[in-house]
Amino acid sequence: MGRGKFKGKPTGHRHFSTPEELRAGTSARPRTFKKEEAEVAEEEEESEEEVEEEPEKRKGTQGLIEIENPNLAKQKNVKAKDVDMGRTTELSRREREEIEKQKAHERYMKLQEQGKTEQARKDLERLAMIRQQRAEAAKKREEEKAAREQKKTEARK
User: Fold this and answer.
1) Which pTM was predicted?
2) Where is the composition biased (Basic residues) (predicted)?
3) C-alpha span between 131 and 53 (Å, rounded)
4) Which of 27, 28, 73, 93 is close enough to 17 for a disulfide, judged by CB 3.0 to 4.6 Å?
């Protein structure tokens, strides 16, 4: 029979066992999850024994054509005792290029510090010119300061 637009809450339909039923073990409650799970496990063990005799069935065209998928990443689980520490792993192209780039940069910076690169020579020449200009400017300032001092002393006399 139809219930209409609104259904009642399921809490009204629950059945609770009385303490007497629990003691007697005659409660009308459903089996527990653990019991159901144990039964399912037993059924799986029985079915596994049967499956071992039958060849494995595959879906679709998997049974017709056997292909190694090169894009499929296979897990490589290696135990700690099987690891060969002496063997070096091969680096990928990107990793090798990155390492070469870092080494080239370090070499360049060493040459730069020693002043052997073109840029370092230009920088050193520029530095020498700036030092020379600053020395000349300082000398000129000293001369002007001395000239001013001399004028002040003459003006006081």
Assistant:
1) 0.33
2) 1-16
3) 93
4) 27
